[in-house]
Structure formats: structure tokens, C-alpha cells
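Propose amino acids for all 566 sites.
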């Protein structure tokens, strides 16, 4: 698990490292430059030529130190400078580079240098040391020119610390189709280097994993440069998770486990319009290791031959009362309930609405995974969200699994929500007419300009729930500060209709086995099992994968995470 720090936390880390631990800025920079040279020499063993685009801040200074090490090793090094005046560390290293006889050129001659290098036939590695975490807003002036020149002329670009131009992301990172689903398209609002690789110095940055920023980085390598590990851990609010972290976060199978203890998952999913979503969510739960799966639906998928032998149908085809729903759910003894894949948000379109199911499950203390149509029900009814999250005393964990478009709509709904006199909370007393937690969350969201993960954190903490915000980067934010996760292993091949339904089912399975211990871990394990299954299939050369492929692979990856106990 790798800790992530925001730009501002890294600035704090640098200050504490120098002031409290006595490690100087020069020492950090020296180890950064040295680590950079060894990493690059290792990754490109046949290259012997660097063109370093250096800004005048400490990111530029990193480039100069790297240049010194490469020069000492006999490489051809040329430095393109934006300015000759900069930070103290920049200035000191520039003086050393001059003494060493390293070629320094102004930006105006950069194209000529690059033409020269290409003509040599040896190829050239271009180093992006124009700006790092000190960038403030949109790149302007000479920095803008530097970014554009470097991007135009160089094919292999290695960014130091972060691709220059990556800064504080705004709301515009993803767009939506008319039907309301996120396309994942990126919007380049200002010039930013799109690197072949990024050598991250010291520790990973949260900003790297904002969905709209990740692809600018190319392949990522983290280089330790001497920051004290304790300080990084103290500051980190989130960690990057990978396959290796799964077993520690998963409730393993016990030798004496049997179907009732492997987890009993209810799946309220699918509809006449989307019967397949219900099938896939049920099968996702089975592939994720659930011992028993109940399909709560009136849709025709109950008759699907692939389900008939393994999934227990619980028909909800009459207009049953709320009390009857509670009885049904209570008798099943569910360890988790998945609500939403393929279910319309509108109660009128189905026999039993999402609202009644959610309230009943919460009152019975059944852990919930809410996806798709279930999320839309909450977006359209913010007081319902407040009720299930904050007003039902017995409630168990709630995990919401929106994709980026749904997440954006949820944020908008919470931001535009206003306290109204006529808000009615079912069964509520007068005092419950003042949802102060919603009011506070509403104000906090409006005061936080950035999107992910800041807003996800506010919502998760303000409403005491877990959010799994799905995209090519998946963020998992929970109610407890410091325990957020990011998963960076989602391949585009996983982006097909039904993939999210399967994921909801898998998370339901993990939740059913260890829900009350750590719901964030159940969500993370589900995301890892789903993501590594997709990656594994692609690595096997399976090309465009479908739901059948994915379900087969999830059986293996989910099982691999559930290490046997004894
Ligand atoms: N000594 C230290 O504490 C360490 C610093 N490190 C490096 O230092 C970097 C941060 O350095 P700095 O804080 O000096 O800043 P940067 O070097 O990241 O960038 C700041 C430079 O960009 C300019 N700039 C900022 N916003 C601009 C805009 N909108 N348009 C045009 N120009 C703009 C500034 O005038 C300055 O020249 C890190 O990313 C990392 O590469 C690392 O070597 C780790 C150790
Ligand atoms: K950079």
C-alpha cells in the first residue's frame, strides 16, 4: 500500500523534513537527482543523450542535478533553460552545471537542439523539469512556451515528479452522453505535458490520481529520496492499493466455512427493461465467493437458465407492504443486500421501490451496496439519503458505487439541496425536520472547489457512508479520515455494459463476509478482484472481454484474495 499526499501536504512534508529532521533541501535534491539518473539509465540502457527542459523552480533544479550525474557518467547532456534566475537550489545547481561545462541553451534554440539530436541518429530522451508541485494555476508566459515546445518536438518525454502543467483539477474532467453516462473523455483545459513516464520523487501525489490527470503521467515510478517514512504516513489521507494488498483486507475462508457462513447476499436488481443487470449482479456475487445468493426481483431474469440452479429467487411481484418487505428481508437473514443494477429509480415502474428496500434493510441492520438505479433514487430524493445514512439508529454499513457521471450528479444534488419547510421524513418527529448534517455538508461542498477526492471525502464523512467512485481510476472514500484508497489498475477493456453490475455483486459478496469489521476493505477487495481480473484477461491476450470472461476470471482473483485461515 503506497501512501498518497496532496501537493500542499508534500510542501508540509518538505518543511518538516528540513526543520524537524535536519535533512537539508540540498540533501533531498541530491538524492533525487542521483535516484533519477540510476532509474533512467536502468529503464533506457541503450540511450546516452539527454535534453533537459529546466524551469527555474526546484523542479528545474532536480533536472540540473540529474544532468550533472548523467554528464559525469559520460552522457551527452544539453539543458534548455526558461530563465537564468530562480530558487536558491536552482541557482546553486546552475552554477555547478556551468562549472562542469554542461551545455546550457535558452528556450528559443530548443528546436534546433532537438533537430540536431535527431540527426545524430542516437535518439534522445527529453526530460521535463519545467514545473512540479509549485505550479500555481494555468501555465503562462515562458513556462507555457516551454511546455508547448517540449510536447511538439519530443517523442520520449520523461517527467520529473509530475508532468508539467498538472495542477489543481477542476470539475470539468469528464463529460456525459445525452443518456447521462460518463464517457470518460478528458478535457485539456490548459497546456500539460503528456509524459511517456513520470519519475515521482519521494511519494505519490493525490493529484496524479484525479481521473483527468492520470493519463498525462504515462508509466509511473516512485523514487525514494529520503523523506522520513513516519512523516509520510502521518500526513497521508489515502493509499494506493494493488493486488498484493487484497489478502490483508479480506476475511479469509475458514476451514469449517459452509454456505451460510460464506455470506448470504440478496440482490435486488434487474427489471423488465434491464433483465441482464440482475443476472450479472447475482453472478458477480457468486464469483466473488458468496455462499448463498437470493435474487429479489419481479423481472424475468429469475427464469434465466444460468441462475436457476444456484440463485434462490425471492419474487417481489405483488405490491407488498413495507412490513411485508421487512419480514421477507428479515427471514432471509442476509449479510448484505445489493440494490440497484438495472432497477429504475422510480417506484411507479416496479412493484417494490428502491426506497422501501433501502429503508427496510437499514432498519434491519443489513449492510447495503447501492448502485445504478439505487443511486439515482437517492440523487432524486436527498432526504431519503439523509434518512438511511443518518436517521436510522441500527443501520449497518452503506456502500455507494457511482461512476463519475453519477457521482457528479450526486454532488450537484447535494450542492443544490436546500432546507425546505415541507421536507417529510417518514416516521420522523419534529426535531427530525432539521437535517443539520445535510445543511453542514451542503455548505462544505459549496466551499470546496475541487472534485475528486475532496468532495467524495466530504460526502463519505458527512453522511457516514462509503463511496466507490468508478472510472479508470477508482477512489474509495469512507467515513473515517485517513482510510481512503485509490485503485489505478482498471483497464479500458473493463468498460462495457454489465461490468459495473458485476462489480456491485462482487462487493456485496466481500461485504457479506466481513461487513461490520471494515466495509472500506470489502469495497477495496471487490475493486481489486474486479480490476485484476480485467488486467489478467488482457495480459492473457483475450482482447475485448465480455461478462462471461470477466465472471470466470473473478472467480479466480476473488478466491486468490480470500486466503484460507488454517
Ligand atoms: N528541496 C525540496 O524540498 C525538494 C523539492 N523537490 C522538487 O521541487 C518541486 C517543487 O519546486 P518549487 O516549489 O520550487 O516549484 P516548481 O519548480 O514546481 O515550479 C515553480 C516554478 O514555476 C513558476 N510558475 C508557477 N506557476 C506558474 C504559472 N501559472 N505560470 C508560469 N510559471 C509559473 C514559478 O515561478 C517557478 O519558477 C517538486 O515538484 C520537486 O520536483 C524535490 O526535489 C524534492 C525535494
Ligand atoms: K515536471
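Proposal:
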Amino acid at each position: 500500500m503506497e501512501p498518497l499526499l496532496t501537493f500542499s501536504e508534500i510542501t508540509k512534508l518538505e518543511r518538516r523534513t528540513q526543520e524537524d529532521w535536519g535533512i537539508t533541501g540540498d540533501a533531498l535534491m541530491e538524492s533525487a537527482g542521483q535516484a533519477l539518473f540510476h532509474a533512467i539509465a536502468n529503464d533506457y540502457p541503450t540511450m546516452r543523450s539527454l535534453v533537459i527542459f529546466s524551469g527555474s523552480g526546484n523542479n528545474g533544479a532536480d533536472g540540473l542535478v540529474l544532468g550533472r550525474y548523467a554528464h559525469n557518467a559520460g552522457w551527452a547532456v544539453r539543458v534548455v533553460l526558461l530563465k537564468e534566475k530562480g530558487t536558491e537550489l536552482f541557482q546553486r545547481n546552475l552554477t555547478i552545471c556551468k562549472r562542469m561545462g554542461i551545455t546550457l541553451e535558452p528556450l528559443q534554440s530548443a528546436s534546433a537542439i532537438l533537430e540536431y539530436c535527431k540527426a545524430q541518429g542516437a535518439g534522445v530522451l527529453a526530460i521535463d523539469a519545467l514545473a512540479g508541485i509549485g505550479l500555481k494555476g494555468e501555465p503562462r508566459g515562458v513556462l507555457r512556451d516551454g511546455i508547448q515546445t517540449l510536447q511538439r518536438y519530443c517523442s520520449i518525454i520523461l517527467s520529473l515528479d509530475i508532468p508539467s502543467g498538472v495542477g489543481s483539477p477542476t470539475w470539468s474532467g469528464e463529460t456525459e452522453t445525452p443518456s447521462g453516462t460518463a464517457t470518460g473523455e478528458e478535457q485539456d483545459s490548459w497546456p500539460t505535458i503528456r509524459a511517456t513516464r513520470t519519475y515521482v520523487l519521494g511519494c505519490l501525489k493525490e493529484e496524479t490520481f484525479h481521473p483527468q490527470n492520470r493519463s498525462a503521467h504515462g508509466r509511473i515510478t516512485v523514487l525514494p529520496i529520503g523523506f522520513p517514512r513516519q512523516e509520510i504516513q502521518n500526513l497521508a489521507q489515502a493509499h494506493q492499493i494493488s493486488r498484493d494488498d487484497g489478502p490483508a483486507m479480506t476475511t479469509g475462508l475458514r476451514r469449517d466455512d459452509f454456505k451460510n457462513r460464506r455470506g448470504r447476499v440478496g440482490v435486488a436488481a434487474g427489471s423488465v427493461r434491464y433483465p441482464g443487470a440482475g443476472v450479472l449482479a447475482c453472478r458477480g456475487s457468486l464469483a466473488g465467493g458468496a455462499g448463498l445468493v437470493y435474487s429479489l426481483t419481479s423481472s424475468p431474469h429469475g427464469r434465466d437458465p444460468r441462475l436457476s440452479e444456484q440463485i434462490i429467487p425471492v419474487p417481489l411481484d405483488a405490491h407488498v407492504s413495507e412490513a411485508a418487505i421487512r419480514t421477507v428481508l428479515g427471514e432471509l437473514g442476509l449479510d448484505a443486500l445489493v440494490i440497484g443494477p438495472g432497477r429504475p429509480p422510480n417506484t411507479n415502474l416496479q412493484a417494490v421501490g428502491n426506497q422501501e428496500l433501502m429503508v427496510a434493510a437499514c432498519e434491519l441492520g443489513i449492510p447495503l451496496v447501492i448502485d445504478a438505479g439505487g443511486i439515482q433514487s437517492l440523487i432524486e430524493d436527498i432526504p431519503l439519503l439523509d434518512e438511511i445514512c443518518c436517521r436510522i439508529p441500527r443501520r449497518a454499513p452503506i456502500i455507494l458505487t457511482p461512476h463519475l457521471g453519477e457521482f457528479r450528479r450526486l454532488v450537484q444534488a447535494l450542492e443544490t439541496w436546500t432546507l425546505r419547510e415541507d421536507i417529510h421524513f417518514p416516521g420522523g418527529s419534529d426535531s427530525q425536520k432539521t437535517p443539520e448534517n445535510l445543511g453542514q455538508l451542503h455548505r462544505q461542498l459549496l466551499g470546496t472547489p475541487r472534485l475528486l477526492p475532496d468532495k467524495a471525502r466530504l460526502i463519505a464523512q458527512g453522511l457516514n457512508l462509503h463511496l466507490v467512485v468508478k472510472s479508470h481510476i477508482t477512489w474509495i472514500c469512507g467515513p473515517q479520515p485517513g482510510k481512503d484508497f485509490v485503485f489505478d489498475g482498471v483497464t479500458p477493456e473493463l468498460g462495457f455494459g454489465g461490468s459495473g453490475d458485476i462489480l456491485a455483486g462482487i462487493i456485496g459478496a466481500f461485504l457479506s463476509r466481513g461487513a461490520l469489521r471494515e466495509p472500506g476493505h470489502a469495497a477495496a477487495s471487490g475493486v481489486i478482484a474486479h480490476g485484476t481480473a480485467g488486467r489478467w484477461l488482457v495480459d492473457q491476450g483475450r482482447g475485448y472481454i465480455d461478462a462471461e470472461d470477466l465472471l470466470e476470471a473473478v472467480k479466480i482473483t476473488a478466491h486468490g484474495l480470500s486466503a484460507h485461515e488454517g
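The radius of gyration is 26 Å. The chain has 21 helices and 19 strands.
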